[in-house]
Amino acid sequence: MLDSLTRNIIYGKTYCSLEHIGSDIDLTITILNCKKQKGELTVVDKETVSTIESVKEFDSKLKYAHLIINNNQVLQKATENRNNLSDIILINQTFPSIVLDDFYYEILRSKEKAYVYICRKAYINTLIKNYEEHSIFITQWSLGNTPVSSLLPFLKQETSLKTSTDTLALEDGEIVAIYPTEVGSYQNDYYDIEGIKIEGSYINTLGGILTLLAGTDEDRISTNFEEQQEQQQSTFTQNRLFAIGLPLAVGVLFALFLVNFLFYSYYYDEVAVLQEIGSTNILQKKLLVRKDSIVDQKQKRFEDVIASASSSASYFIDEIAKGMPDTILLEGLQYQPIEKRIRNNKAVQVKENTIIITGETAVNSDLSSWISSLETLEFSESVSINNLEKKANNIRFSIEFLIKSGYDH
Prior knowledge:
Elements: H1 2-11, E1 14-22, E2 27-37, E3 40-49, H2 52-58, E4 64-69, E5 75-80, H3 87-94, E6 103-109, E7 113-120, H4 121-133, E8 137-143, E9 160-162, E10 166-171, E11 174-180, E12 190-193, E13 196-199, H5 203-214, E14 221-223, H6 226-322, E15 328-335, E16 354-361, H7 364-375, E17 380-391, E18 394-403
Parallel strand pairs: 1-4, 4-8
Antiparallel strand pairs: 1-2, 2-3, 5-7, 6-7, 6-14, 9-10, 10-11, 12-13, 15-16, 16-18, 17-18
């Protein structure tokens, strides 16, 4: 199945065979196109033209063909073959004086005879080159009526077969004689080859197509150009694979580049977004670090102030309490009391450098003495009585102690 698929990719489903008859001056090229589909072979097109250029004009899509040279450049002779003689012996019997290195030969064997066809290599090579110049690759070629060998198993009921140049006498599907058709007596008879009705003028080309499909019957046919044909087929296969594979490879590469570009664009955008987010995060981090630094500094300052204030307050309270008489009962001592009630979104206002002392005493003179002693303290700016109130036998009082501004103990 894989071989069949590969063959269809390289050769396609349409097969072409060309036959050259006549002479170079009065050339006739018979063209036959057949298509193989679902295991059946059908005739698609057939035509007769006079130039290689006309072959390409007839079928512009034609890429390759089987070429049959059956014109005046091909020499044919028959010889006895009862002992299944070798090719060299048959050649020497039929063409004893030729230089074999200059010729291609093809031998068609029957039970008792061998039909030897020869043609100069230079002529065939030139023909092949001419076809290649018109973008038609000759993958195989045959000489004379040898392609008929592919049809013999289907002609067992026939007693004769007329090709475009010769008449073949048949007996039980074997060739018993080949002789040229007399000028003016040619009749283009039809033959039924497994359901394919074909004229005798196209019988060789049909045999060429069967040779393309099934290969050469090695029991009947032998040549000295198998190697050249294999090389032609290999070259054609490489050219076809290159012609088919190059656009496919370019298409695949383009698709890969496109997919790669789409992925690259997508991830490039993603990376750009991430980089932007990363830059923003770095900036925010720097701002946070700076704010944290500011907060830390303020926190430190606040703690220093609190520590300093706490230390100062302790010192002031200790000094104030040292000279307090035993007859005085302190109820409260506020360092830098709040001036106004605390409100939302309002700064807290305090009386700086101020201590409010409240308490109660039963001896008024002791209170007066203590106030006098407070006034003598080195950090005292002033001492004033805010309130005196009689309560039973005692006196309630409130004293405002003002500390000197900028005092540092």
